[in-house]
Amino acid sequence: MPDTLEMQEYLESYVPDLVGKFLAEKPIPNMEDTTFTVQVTVEGEKSLTFGITIKNAREISVHPGGLENPMLSVSLSEEIIARITREISHFTTRKQYDGVTNAKGTLTVEAAMPGDWVLPVTITFNGAAEPKATLRGPAEVMSKVMAGQISGPEAFMQGQIKFEGDMMFLMSLGSFL
Asked: What is the DSSP letter of 54?
């Protein structure tokens, strides 16, 4: 997105419409009476902050300026926001919702992408800066871990992903990851 106005329009209308369509096509069972909140800061020439609320895995709303006490706070660069929008829409299940609700701490993921660039994503769970952990590895491997095709401990033992920081915090994210 070359300028701030396009990014703002993207976050205020395109992202909610896209995520809403994916949720309508593939409703997520057992999500009644849930509210998922995430605050996204897009860093670029001019930083933008937006809160996103998803109720019952069906209703999505965007709040310019952010949210008070979001469940997750994510900071991303303008270049990567478009690349991950589709993945986010397929990410929420009841197990992951419950995991996010109970998590406290900050996780940094450094995914090595094709083309020799790294996708850095920092996720703060429920406003807690500590404990901290960092995961590093190829995006392909991390996608397999997230999809349940390979377990995190298995990927670690095979040297496919590396971590540093608080091991107990990282292990507590097992239901989320």
From this structure: E
What sign does the dihedral 151-157-163-165 (CA atoms) show? positive
What phi and psi, each to the nearest 5 degrees, are found at residue 129?
-75, -30
Indicate if 103-177 has the same CATH topology as 1-92: yes
As given in the structure block, the two tokens for residue 129 are: 């800066």
Mean of pLDDT values over 120-141: 91
Domain 1-92 has CATH 3.30.1050: yes
Each domain of the chain, given as residue ranges in start order, spans 1-92, 103-177
Under a CB-based contact definition with an 8 Å cutoff, are residues 142 and 174 in contact?
no
Helical residues (DSSP H) of 56-148, grouped into ranges: 78-89, 94-102, 139-146
Give the mean pLDDT of 122-145.
Answer: 90
Q: Please name the residue that has the structure tokens 């009644």.
A: 32
At 83, the pLDDT band (50, 70, 90 cuts) reads low
The span from the CA of 18 to the CA of 130, in Å, is 33
Give the class (CATH, top level) of 103-177. Answer: alpha beta
Going by C-alpha positions, the residue among 68, 51, 64 that lies closest to residue 5 is 64
Give the chain's largest Cα–Cα span. Answer: 45
